[in-house]
Amino acid sequence: MSHIRKNALALTAVAALLAACSNSRFVGNEEYGTDNQREMILRQTGGDPGASGLVVFGVDRSRQNQAAGGGGAGMTVNAFLWRATLDTLSFMPLASADPFGGVIITDWYTPPAAEGERFKATAYVTTRQLRSDGVRVQVFRQVNQRGAWVDAPTSAATNSELEDRVLARARELRSQSAGLR
Protein backbone atom coordinates (compact mmCIF):
# COMPACT_ATOMS: atom_id res chain seq x y z
CA MET A 1 0.00 0.00 0.00
CA SER A 2 1.42 3.36 -0.93
CA HIS A 3 2.16 6.09 1.60
CA ILE A 4 -0.53 8.31 0.11
CA ARG A 5 -3.19 5.64 0.58
CA LYS A 6 -2.02 4.97 4.16
CA ASN A 7 -2.15 8.68 4.99
CA ALA A 8 -5.59 9.04 3.38
CA LEU A 9 -6.86 5.99 5.28
CA ALA A 10 -5.44 7.31 8.55
CA LEU A 11 -6.96 10.74 7.96
CA THR A 12 -10.35 9.19 7.19
CA ALA A 13 -10.17 7.08 10.36
CA VAL A 14 -9.32 10.11 12.49
CA ALA A 15 -12.14 12.14 10.93
CA ALA A 16 -14.62 9.33 11.55
CA LEU A 17 -13.42 9.00 15.14
CA LEU A 18 -13.77 12.72 15.77
CA ALA A 19 -17.24 12.77 14.21
CA ALA A 20 -18.30 9.89 16.46
CA CYS A 21 -17.00 11.75 19.51
CA SER A 22 -18.76 15.00 18.74
CA ASN A 23 -21.51 16.10 21.04
CA SER A 24 -23.67 17.83 18.44
CA ARG A 25 -27.25 18.74 19.14
CA PHE A 26 -29.91 20.94 17.67
CA VAL A 27 -30.46 24.23 19.47
CA GLY A 28 -34.07 25.15 20.12
CA ASN A 29 -35.37 28.63 19.43
CA GLU A 30 -36.04 29.23 23.12
CA GLU A 31 -32.30 29.06 23.84
CA TYR A 32 -31.59 32.18 21.79
CA GLY A 33 -33.33 34.58 24.16
CA THR A 34 -31.21 36.74 26.42
CA ASP A 35 -32.70 35.49 29.68
CA ASN A 36 -32.43 31.86 28.63
CA GLN A 37 -28.82 32.37 27.53
CA ARG A 38 -27.97 33.97 30.86
CA GLU A 39 -29.64 31.11 32.75
CA MET A 40 -27.75 28.51 30.69
CA ILE A 41 -24.46 30.20 31.54
CA LEU A 42 -25.33 30.33 35.21
CA ARG A 43 -26.25 26.63 35.15
CA GLN A 44 -22.98 25.76 33.38
CA THR A 45 -20.93 27.66 35.93
CA GLY A 46 -22.78 26.32 38.93
CA GLY A 47 -25.28 29.22 39.25
CA ASP A 48 -24.37 29.85 42.86
CA PRO A 49 -20.69 30.62 43.33
CA GLY A 50 -20.76 29.09 46.77
CA ALA A 51 -22.42 25.91 45.56
CA SER A 52 -20.94 23.23 43.36
CA GLY A 53 -19.14 24.37 40.26
CA LEU A 54 -18.90 22.65 36.93
CA VAL A 55 -19.12 18.90 36.98
CA VAL A 56 -16.38 17.38 34.86
CA PHE A 57 -16.71 13.72 33.81
CA GLY A 58 -19.31 13.16 36.52
CA VAL A 59 -16.99 14.30 39.32
CA ASP A 60 -17.89 17.39 41.35
CA ARG A 61 -14.62 19.07 42.28
CA SER A 62 -16.15 22.16 43.82
CA ARG A 63 -14.81 21.68 47.36
CA GLN A 64 -11.25 21.36 46.07
CA ASN A 65 -11.60 24.42 43.85
CA GLN A 66 -13.42 26.60 46.37
CA ALA A 67 -10.33 26.47 48.55
CA ALA A 68 -8.35 27.73 45.55
CA GLY A 69 -10.41 30.87 45.11
CA GLY A 70 -14.07 29.99 44.80
CA GLY A 71 -14.04 28.82 41.18
CA GLY A 72 -15.83 25.75 39.88
CA ALA A 73 -13.99 22.83 38.32
CA GLY A 74 -12.11 24.04 35.31
CA MET A 75 -12.95 27.72 35.83
CA THR A 76 -9.93 29.94 35.54
CA VAL A 77 -11.65 32.96 37.10
CA ASN A 78 -13.13 33.67 40.50
CA ALA A 79 -16.74 32.47 40.66
CA PHE A 80 -17.85 35.32 42.93
CA LEU A 81 -16.47 37.94 40.53
CA TRP A 82 -17.97 36.06 37.58
CA ARG A 83 -21.45 35.87 39.06
CA ALA A 84 -21.26 39.46 40.35
CA THR A 85 -20.32 40.68 36.88
CA LEU A 86 -23.25 38.83 35.32
CA ASP A 87 -25.58 40.24 37.99
CA THR A 88 -24.29 43.80 37.61
CA LEU A 89 -24.60 43.80 33.83
CA SER A 90 -27.94 41.96 33.82
CA PHE A 91 -29.84 45.08 32.75
CA MET A 92 -28.08 44.86 29.37
CA PRO A 93 -28.77 42.03 26.90
CA LEU A 94 -26.06 39.39 26.98
CA ALA A 95 -24.24 38.78 23.68
CA SER A 96 -21.69 36.21 24.86
CA ALA A 97 -19.94 34.93 27.95
CA ASP A 98 -16.90 32.72 28.37
CA PRO A 99 -16.57 31.52 31.98
CA PHE A 100 -13.22 29.87 31.26
CA GLY A 101 -11.65 32.94 29.64
CA GLY A 102 -13.48 35.35 31.94
CA VAL A 103 -15.02 37.52 29.22
CA ILE A 104 -18.59 38.84 29.21
CA ILE A 105 -19.83 40.89 26.26
CA THR A 106 -23.21 42.58 26.24
CA ASP A 107 -25.23 43.62 23.25
CA TRP A 108 -26.21 47.24 22.64
CA TYR A 109 -28.58 48.66 25.22
CA THR A 110 -30.64 51.85 24.85
CA PRO A 111 -31.79 53.31 28.18
CA PRO A 112 -35.48 54.29 28.16
CA ALA A 113 -34.62 57.90 29.09
CA ALA A 114 -32.00 58.34 26.34
CA GLU A 115 -33.29 57.12 23.00
CA GLY A 116 -30.56 58.82 20.97
CA GLU A 117 -27.72 56.86 22.52
CA ARG A 118 -26.84 53.26 23.26
CA PHE A 119 -24.27 51.44 25.35
CA LYS A 120 -22.36 48.19 25.20
CA ALA A 121 -20.04 46.68 27.80
CA THR A 122 -17.21 44.19 27.83
CA ALA A 123 -16.10 42.81 31.19
CA TYR A 124 -12.95 40.86 31.93
CA VAL A 125 -12.61 38.75 35.08
CA THR A 126 -8.88 38.18 35.29
CA THR A 127 -8.08 36.30 38.50
CA ARG A 128 -9.06 33.27 40.53
CA GLN A 129 -8.90 35.36 43.71
CA LEU A 130 -11.46 37.90 44.86
CA ARG A 131 -9.30 40.99 44.41
CA SER A 132 -10.07 44.59 43.53
CA ASP A 133 -7.99 44.36 40.36
CA GLY A 134 -9.67 41.09 39.34
CA VAL A 135 -12.33 42.70 37.15
CA ARG A 136 -12.15 45.29 34.39
CA VAL A 137 -15.20 46.77 32.66
CA GLN A 138 -15.10 48.77 29.45
CA VAL A 139 -18.24 50.64 28.38
CA PHE A 140 -18.75 51.74 24.78
CA ARG A 141 -21.20 54.46 23.75
CA GLN A 142 -22.75 55.42 20.46
CA VAL A 143 -25.04 58.33 19.60
CA ASN A 144 -27.55 58.47 16.79
CA GLN A 145 -26.69 61.19 14.30
CA ARG A 146 -29.17 61.45 11.42
CA GLY A 147 -30.01 57.75 11.54
CA ALA A 148 -26.44 56.46 11.84
CA TRP A 149 -24.80 55.23 15.05
CA VAL A 150 -21.53 57.04 15.69
CA ASP A 151 -18.98 56.17 18.39
CA ALA A 152 -18.85 58.66 21.25
CA PRO A 153 -16.57 58.90 24.28
CA THR A 154 -17.60 57.57 27.66
CA SER A 155 -16.46 58.78 31.02
CA ALA A 156 -13.70 56.77 32.71
CA ALA A 157 -15.79 57.16 35.86
CA THR A 158 -18.51 55.01 34.26
CA ASN A 159 -16.11 52.09 33.93
CA SER A 160 -14.88 52.54 37.51
CA GLU A 161 -18.42 52.77 38.89
CA LEU A 162 -19.40 49.50 37.23
CA GLU A 163 -16.23 47.81 38.50
CA ASP A 164 -17.01 49.05 42.04
CA ARG A 165 -20.55 47.66 41.78
CA VAL A 166 -19.20 44.30 40.62
CA LEU A 167 -16.75 44.17 43.54
CA ALA A 168 -19.45 45.11 46.06
CA ARG A 169 -21.76 42.41 44.68
CA ALA A 170 -18.92 39.83 44.73
CA ARG A 171 -18.23 40.60 48.41
CA GLU A 172 -21.95 40.25 49.12
CA LEU A 173 -22.07 36.87 47.37
CA ARG A 174 -19.00 35.68 49.30
CA SER A 175 -20.59 36.77 52.61
CA GLN A 176 -23.81 34.94 51.73
CA SER A 177 -21.85 31.85 50.78
CA ALA A 178 -19.85 31.93 54.02
CA GLY A 179 -23.08 32.21 56.01
CA LEU A 180 -24.46 29.04 54.38
CA ARG A 181 -21.55 26.86 55.45
UniProtKB/TrEMBL annotation:
Any idea what this protein is called? Answer: DUF3576 domain-containing protein
* InterPro entries the UniProt entry points to: DUF3576 (IPR021959)
Task: Please give the superkingdom of this protein's source.
Answer: Bacteria
Q: Which first-to-last residue range defines the signal peptide?
A: 1-27
Keywords attached to this Swiss-Prot or TrEMBL record, sorted alphabetically, are: Signal
| Signal as UniProt keyword | yes
Q: What organism, scientifically named, is this protein from?
A: Sabulicella glaciei
